[in-house]
Predict the structure.
Amino acid sequence: MLNKTLCSCVSKISLIALLGGVVPNCASALGYHVGDWDFRLSGYGMAGLIEPDFKDTLFLGDFSVRGQVQYDATSDHKFGLVYVMDALALDEHHWAHQAFGFWQWRGVGRLEAGMTESVAHKLGLGLPDVGGLRVNENSWLFKKMGAQGPIIANTVLTTGHESLRVNLVSTSSQGVQYGVTVSGLTDQYDVSAGAGIKLKYSEGKTKFAFSLGTDFISNLDGYTPDIFTAPIYADWRGQVALGMNIQYNSFVIGVNGRAIYDQDAIGEPTDGLSAGIGASYDLLNYSLSLSYMMSDTGVWQKDIHAYVDNTVIGSFRCKYSKNVDIWTSVGVTRHDPFLAAALRVTF
């Protein structure tokens, strides 16, 4: 039975690879520069299959498109607009994943204003992964396979991309980059404020990175930053996240953790702990990765049974060309095994 399943999946992967052979070899980003203006368009599209419990075959599709317009006012000052639309925003019925303006001051930093994620999220470190299951942000697994309880599916700190906010982040100097964020123009909470820092160090073939992010949100009234947990009704939310990556040549190992606490929360549990560890290795046009993620929701409420989910994912990727790759993943979550494969085209 297992051999039959594997043969079936190999046939499907072969079909995807055949389709990939007729995809044009696009540049890594489509751009146009005229005078002091710069226009950029980049993104990816993905189509594939996933088999929960090696039984039902489900379609797996993902996409992201990012457009940027930048005006070089002087050699030191740049102004621009960014618009990002992807499958995650479409699932949440939003018209954009990000839509913000920015002012970049060379040697000083960058100011962002609009719909975008917080500094702690942008400076956070996710797990190394070569597949396409969105391991670090609301993974496809829980949407396709379901869960028996609420899942904290973001491995880095998030406060939701749909909120209007202001980010101020410094330029990286001697391997140190930091920033602050504030948001409050929403009816789902009063105010959100946070900070993040990333440290980088390189010596020879070894590279090291460390991130720390914090966030505080007051008077939450139906806020939903994580799509696999219930809306949040609480006096306030505090969270902190840590991340670390170590790279030696083509080998990368990463760990991260996130703690969330909701004060006087009403309804289903939405806070708890999440942690993960992963590793990846590149060899020519091939890459391997192995990731483990744990979500423990409701851990702070003694009168509510905590829901724990453990997920293990092994992935393999083959670079067909500069812009086309084929990946496959196998693993287990919610005690159920799965097999997935897809073709991804970047531009």
About this structure: Residues 2-21+30-346 form a domain with the Porin fold (CATH 2.40.160.10). The CA atoms of residues 48 and 342 lie 4 Å apart.
